[in-house]
UniProtKB/TrEMBL annotation:
Subcellular compartments: Cytoplasm
Organism placement in taxonomy: Eukaryota, Metazoa, Porifera, Hexactinellida, Hexasterophora
Species name: Oopsacas minuta
GO CC terms, sorted: ESCRT II complex
Source organism, top-level taxon: Eukaryota
Stated name of the protein: Vacuolar protein-sorting-associated protein 25
UniProt similarity note: Belongs to the VPS25 family.
Gene Ontology MF annotations: protein homodimerization activity; structural molecule activity
Gene Ontology terms: biological process: macroautophagy; protein transport to vacuole involved in ubiquitin-dependent protein catabolic process via the multivesicular body sorting pathway
Alphabetical UniProt keywords: Cytoplasm, Protein transport, Transport
UniProt-listed InterPro entries: ESCRT-II_cplx_Vps25-sub, ESCRT-II_cplx_Vps25-sub_N, WH-like_DNA-bd_sf, WH_DNA-bd_sf
Pfam families: ESCRT-II
């Protein structure tokens, strides 16, 4: 999980506190601990522009769950509890039944949809069609926050716009919808 910026990710103070890696027994403390972990995961994924988490891989080697300075690793059970909390908050979607691979949504699909729609509005794409690929990787979006966004997230964002009557997805042949189009409505 490499950083996309020249500066280092700023770890919270709790990251270097050994008890942070052990699920706390006091329920109030545990709730604060889980909330701190949720914030850490979302901030880490946002900073590094990551979207997919493989839990087994992350617990083996990611600095997110493995603090080599402290020689501490978050347990799988605690990590699963935290990820399930993110799921209940709408910031995570499991990609498999085993709950090992998930999509981490540091912005919800609705938030991404709002950014995409604002771009379409600001750039005169209302009542015109563009492709999902153009949104994801096009020259017109290179300076946008959603540029390079995981394709599945682009599609989820567009689905929220479609549900709100602000866009119509025009599906093509690829199951991943990379060749789909979208028409934005004013």
């Amino acid at each position: 999980m490499a950083s996309q910026s020249s500066s280092e990710f700023e770890w919270p103070v709790l990251y270097n506190y050994p008890p942070f890696y052990t699920l706390q027994t006091n329920l109030d403390t545990r709730a604060k601990q889980i909330d701190a972990w949720c914030n850490l995961i979302l901030n880490y994924f946002k900073y590094n522009k990551l979207y997919v988490l493989d839990l087994t891989e992350a617990l083996a080697s990611s600095p997110l769950f493995v603090n080599s300075q402290l020689n501490r690793i978050l347990s799988r059970e605690t990590a699963s509890l935290i990820l399930n909390t993110l799921d209940s908050r709408g910031n995570l979607e499991w990609q498999d039944k085993e709950k090992d691979r998930c999509l981490v949504m540091w912005r919800t699909p609705k938030e991404w949809g709002a950014l995409i729609y604002q771009w379409a509005s600001d750039n005169a794409f209302i009542n015109t069609v563009c492709t999902v690929y153009e949104l994801h990787s096009g020259d017109d979006t290179i300076n946008e926050e959603f540029y390079g966004l995981e394709l599945i997230m682009v599609v989820k964002a567009l689905q929220t716009l479609q549900n709100d009557g602000k866009a119509q997805i025009i599906q093509r042949s690829n199951p991943d919808m990379s060749d789909a189009g979208v028409k934005f409505f004013g």
